[in-house]
Amino acid sequence: MPNAFTWVFLAALAVAAATRLWLSLRQIRHVRAHRGAVPGMFAEAIPLAAHQKAADYTVAKARLGIIDTVLDAAILLALTLGGALQWLADLWARAFAVESLWHGTALILTVFVLKGILGLPLDLYRVFVVEERFGFNRMTPRLYFTDMLKHLLVGAVLGIPLLLVILWLMQAAGSLWWLYAWAVLVGYSLFLQMIYPAVVMPLFNKFSPLSDPVLAARVEELLRRTGFRSRGLYVMDGSKRSSHGNAFFTGFGAAKRIVLFDTLVSRLQPAEVEAVLAHELGHYKLHHVVKGMALSWAFSFALLFALGVLTAQPWFYLGLGVTTATPAMALLLFMLVIGEFTFFVQPLLSLFSRKNEYEADHYAAQYANPSELAHALVKLYHDNSATLTPDPLHSAYYDSHPPAAMRIARLRTA
Ligand SMILES: [Zn+2]
After folding, report:
1. Average pLDDT of 390-402?
2. What is the three-class DSSP state of 236?
């Protein structure tokens, strides 16, 4: 029984999917059109073969994105208007009372597991065919499946208690439940950030103290210059899974750790690692991390408020093809469909992120050598087969980092 909201949902889904497909096709066309020649400013640093590999890799990933978009839309339609959610709710109603926490929890977990299973073939293809073909995959099927099991267990241990608390608040806390749920969510996200580096990450990777004395001395000196305190400097065995390189911080306050991927340390010169790290320090010093958290809290506040309103509207459930109007069903529907609406906020988030990247580059240029950062960026683009010629619109919509050419141009004038 479609109502007006059904058409709003279908319109959002259609426009979002069409936009995703259109951007992917633009990206493929643009990257292919520039496949024949390395852009002038990179001509010395990047061989044509590497440029063409990056183009092919980018096209392969964009194609995967297209399949993903179509698959996601099909699953979403099958679950909602196709009646699968209602069928599952009826199925679980044989075991548990419909209003009970158990019914809601079982329903939500079933849908998550189902979505995971349906997404599995494409992810296997991504890792063992696409990443493999371009030489980035280092995972064995065995590591892939033990990782998956660990992720499932960690997800269950960390996620199910939170889900139970939120479902309980929805049932028992009155009309302001969403406000309490938001407070719980904020507290929980802080708790996760505290335990993540020490408890969760070691389940997946080994962290060893940085042993290279030359690099360690440079980094210590950089930390002293910038007045940054951290709980240590670690190298992570990222090469266990992939040859993509990275550097990042985990934790916050006094528990901050600096983590460098082993792939980064082995590929970059000490002065380049220092410059990359100075960029990461910039994110901290310029409060990007805190701003990012505040933004996500504001975002979840608005979303939970919206969910608070929607749970009380019969048209919300009926419009999405279900008659079991329980809090758990509202939460599930909301989690499933919200991405089709928030997709249109993506360009703003990308813009915010790119602005932060320029600021961190500027910071790095003050505390380290900007031309070393530029060298490091070129090496990372080369090693990761990241395209130097993205479609400008695709990049503006999605990219958290500005295109290489624009970052390097700014670093040259810094
Ligand atoms: Zn950055």
Report:
1. 95
2. strand
Whether the Cβ atoms of residue 341 and residue 306 lie closer than 8 Å to each other? no
Output 266 or 71, whichever has higher pLDDT: 71
Distances from the Cα of 162 to the Cα of 16, 239, 295, 414, angstroms: 30, 33, 21, 46
Report the separation in Å between the CA atom of 368 and the middle of ligand 1, taken as the mean of its atom positions: 15
The pLDDT tens digits for 324-370 are: 999 999 999 999 999 999 999 999 999 999 999 999 999 999 999 99
Distance separating alpha carbons of residues 10 and 340, to the nearest angstrom? 9
What are the tens digits of pLDDT across the range 182-200? 999 999 999 988 888 788 8
Distance CA 290, CA 220 (A): 24
User: Is the pLDDT confidence value at 252 over 60?
Assistant: no
- Take residue 271 and report the two structure tokens written for it: 């002065």
What is the pTM for the complete model shown? 0.88
152 SS3 class: helix
Q: For position 92, what pLDDT does the model report?
A: 97
CA 284 to ligand 1 centroid distance, Å:
10
Q: Specify the 3-state DSSP secondary structure of 114.
A: helix
Strands 247-250, 207-209: pairing is: unpaired
- Cα 247 to ligand 1 centre (Å): 9
What angle in degrees, to the nearest 10, is found between the helix axes of 370-384 and 270-285? 100
Determine the distance separating the centroid of ligand 1 and the alpha carbon of 195, expressed in angstroms: 23
Residue in 131, 274, 280, 340 annotated catalytic: 280
136 vs 128: CA distance, rounded Å = 10
* pLDDT tens-digit series, residues 273-314: 999 999 988 998 999 988 999 999 999 999 999 999 999 999
Rounded-to-integer distance, Cα 288 and Cα 286, Å: 6
340 is catalytic: no
H-only helix segments in 320-369: 327-342, 346-367
Q: What is the pLDDT of residues 88-125, one digit of tens each?
A: 999 999 999 998 999 999 999 999 999 999 999 999 99
Cα separation, 134 vs 57, whole angstroms = 7
Contact in structure between 198 and 179 (CB atoms under 8 Å): no
360 Cα–ligand 1 center, Å: 6
Cβ(15)–Cβ(73) below 8 Å: no
